[in-house]
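DM between two lab members

TW: hey, do you still have the non-reducing end alpha-L-arabinofuranosidase entry open?
JB: yeah, one sec
JB: this one, 506 aa:
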Amino acid sequence: MTTFTKLGAGETPLIEVDARKKLSKIDPMTYGGFTEHMGRCIYGGIYDPGSPLSDEQGFHKDVVSALQELEIPVVRYPGGNFVATYHWAEGVGPRDQRPKRPELAWLGVESNQFGTDEFMAWLDVLSAGRQDGTRVEPYLCLNMGTGTLDEALAWVEYCNGTRDTYWANKRRENGHPEPYRVKYWALGNEIWGPWQVEQMTQEDYAKKAAQWAKALRLLDPDLVLILCGEDGTGASSWDHYVLDRCVGVVDMHSIHIYTADGGDHVKNATAPLSAERAIEMTGALIDLARVRNKVPASKPPTKICFDEWNVWDPVRAPGEQGAEEAYTLSDALAVAVWLNVFVRQSRYIGMANIAQTVNVISPLMTSPDGITKQATWWPLLLFSRYMRGWTVACHVTAGAYDGPTNPEWLQGTLEHGAPWLDVSASVDEEGMVSLVVVNISETDDCVVDLKGVGQEVTAFKVSGDNVKVTNVAGEEKVKLTEEKWDGKGKYTFSKHSITMLRWAGA
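TW: and the structure you got?
JB:
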């Protein structure tokens, strides 16, 4: 957790870190990914058979290699809005027998050439590159739009069944004798939204989710079930209502937020602070629901699954046109603030999934010649690689922005305004401390007194010439640099930059 004091007249900016004060564990699932049948995320993204850049299974090798750098712990699939008309059984078995279907979320045609078995095989390839020997976990979203409970139970049986039963045997017939052991299952996606096929009221959804949860656990009691929430801000009563009815039968509660303001850098970079308020409010709603429903303390905490988050401007990158954002340095700063939020609020976060993994509002873009790492790739890489272990106590004294925000309500929730220096800190199992400082200012470097920092410091910095620069094929205008610092004296955090300082704790 990071506390903040607005800089007074004549004061020098100050950041104090106390790595001895471990506040809450950072769940490794915080750095999850998301792949949806949308635009070029699957076809032409992770799956590109026939391309010289793909392996014998059709998986884009450059994408696999890049994602292995991130050590992604979990990937959500197959949607997203797509899932509301997706029938998983049409995407397994011989490919020449799989039907093509109209796709209603993004107004395309789904070939079903990539389905459950291909997704699991792709995760196996990703997992092969993990140094810790763990696998990349699958996280499947159930169709609660046009889908049925029987269909959901069949999918769980296909993935996890070990007995002599129909769908478990069908998986074996399809060449996969061992169960996939899929642990994480979402009870639908954004069912509250008017854009959804089979949109539901909160009353109808809560009743249906509770019944599905009961049946799914009878089939497989080890499932981790994720309830479909809204945005956590309390803008409607959805989150409060469905939690109050279902908190006792689920393990996590999903919320989604996208932020953007392409026309104003400061609004864009500070917008993720709205997600911080949403996390705090959702955490309170979860506590309230557990109290009201007398959920015993022996039941593990109900966590937040922030399974769609990112910077996305649907006007700039329309979803039905593939949502291929060209991310700027300003967007990279916003992503770093997003990740700072997750670290600061780690006590509540059980999983988070950036939307999406490749091509679609993504830090990675593919082309016939290879991949481009967009501006937003670099903060994601730094956090996923180094911000592990525990959130530690940190205090910031700095100037603050007190102008208009996006959303408008955000500024009214910030007691001292939005700090120009957005900060989080962690310590890992080996005692390495990581401090991330995002200098949001477009114009001013910030010279800061640092307390609690070691004397042999590695400094990583992400920046560029101005907040509007982007990375394109063959031209990296936003990049990562590394240098050493002796930890003595003041440190200058450059304007419009992301800086990570790392040192060995005492």
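TW: got it. The radius of gyration is 23 Å. The chain has two domains: 2-21+393-504, 27-387.
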